């Protein structure tokens, strides 16, 4: 995979610290003209071959075969579409796009131009999540799910003072639902599928959901998904999946899932922990395999999952 990065924000800095990843070559990075120096500094530090201050120019580069769209969510749709029309594969940061129609249009564009497209979401590629999926059957039918991602935002104090940074700007995909609860939604829909009903109860400040509770209703279970950017985490961000024969619990960000506990009662209590050097390595290792092997089936499965998540987000916002 010869990767071209669009963006130079926090997530790009984080991603670059995850390298090296076998099979991934940093072919180029594109920023805005305003952030050109940041891009040049990153290119020098991480040995990125080329640097552009216009992503459309990078899309003309024959040495780039896959584009990583790592910009604010409001830019995702157009940048993904431009990249696919240029004949590139696309990896797009979460949340993928805002509506199912946008997602379906991108899939159609990818198919028409022979490209592959996938959403970058750490949760579902983590090794601990893969073993959790296998352990789910051990706890019997699940009836109650409580997922929690509470993280007091480093930008919240500025928000209270009237400075609306991207993390709290609804036009840029900010707010608790799109920025944090999306991780919980990915986890829940991957484990249990699309819900029958979706209800969102946000705490609104300045027209932004700074925290909120999302209820997903299934045939035999209720899932409560909590996310907050305006609160301190309680019980170390504890999440619970409770079944008739036992339960699975974990603490901390569902985007990292550092470990989880499987409890089947009567002393059958076990901590599961498969460590990774960086939470973004498993997803990009999977993307290298998908793109280099032209694994259409894997990409289609990933897209279908992302589409279910987008539908939940859309229902939550419009319900």
From TrEMBL:
Domain Gfo/Idh/MocA-like oxidoreductase N-terminal, first and last residues per copy: 2-117
Short name of any one Pfam family annotated for the protein: GFO_IDH_MocA
InterPro entries, alphabetized: Gfo/Idh/MocA-like_OxRdtase_N (IPR000683), GFO_IDH_MocA-like_dom (IPR055170), NAD(P)-bd_dom_sf (IPR036291)
Any one GO MF annotation of this record: nucleotide binding
Domain GFO/IDH/MocA-like oxidoreductase: 138-248
Name this protein carries in UniProt: Dehydrogenase related protein
UniProt source species: Lactobacillus equicursoris DSM 19284 = JCM 14600 = CIP 110162
């Amino acid at each position: 995979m010869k990767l071209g990065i669009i963006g130079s924000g926090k997530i790009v800095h984080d991603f670059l610290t995850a390298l090296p990843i076998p099979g991934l070559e940093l072919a180029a990075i594109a920023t805005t003209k305003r952030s050109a120096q940041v891009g040049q500094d990153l290119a020098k530090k991480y040995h990125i071959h080329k640097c552009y201050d216009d992503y459309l120019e990078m899309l003309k580069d024959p040495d780039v075969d896959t584009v990583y769209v790592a910009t604010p969510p409001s830019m995702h749709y157009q940048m993904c579409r431009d990249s696919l029309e240029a004949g590139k594969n696309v990896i797009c940061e979460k949340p993928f796009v805002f509506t199912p129609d946008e997602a379906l249009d991108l899939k159609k564009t990818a198919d028409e131009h022979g490209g592959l497209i996938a959403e970058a979401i750490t949760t579902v590629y983590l090794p601990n999540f893969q073993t959790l999926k296998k352990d789910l059957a051990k706890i019997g039918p699940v009836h109650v799910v409580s997922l929690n991602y509470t993280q007091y935002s480093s930008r919240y104090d500025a928000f209270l003072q009237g400075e609306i940074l991207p993390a709290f700007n609804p036009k840029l995909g900010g707010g608790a639902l799109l920025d944090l609860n999306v991780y919980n939604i990915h986890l829940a829909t991957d484990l249990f599928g699309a819900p029958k009903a979706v209800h969102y109860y946000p705490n609104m400040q300045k027209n932004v959901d700074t925290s909120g509770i999302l209820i997903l209703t299934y045939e035999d279970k209720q899932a409560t998904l909590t996310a907050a950017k305006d609160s301190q985490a309680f019980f170390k961000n504890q999440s619970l999946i409770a079944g008739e024969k036992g339960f699975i619990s974990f603490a901390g960000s569902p985007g990292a899932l550092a470990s989880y506990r499987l409890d089947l009662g009567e002393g059958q209590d076990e901590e599961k922990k498969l460590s990774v050097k960086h939470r973004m390595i498993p997803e990009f290792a999977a993307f290298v395999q998908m793109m280099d092997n032209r694994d259409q089936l894997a990409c289609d499965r990933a897209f279908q999952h992302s589409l279910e998540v987008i539908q939940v987000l859309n229902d939550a916002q419009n319900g």
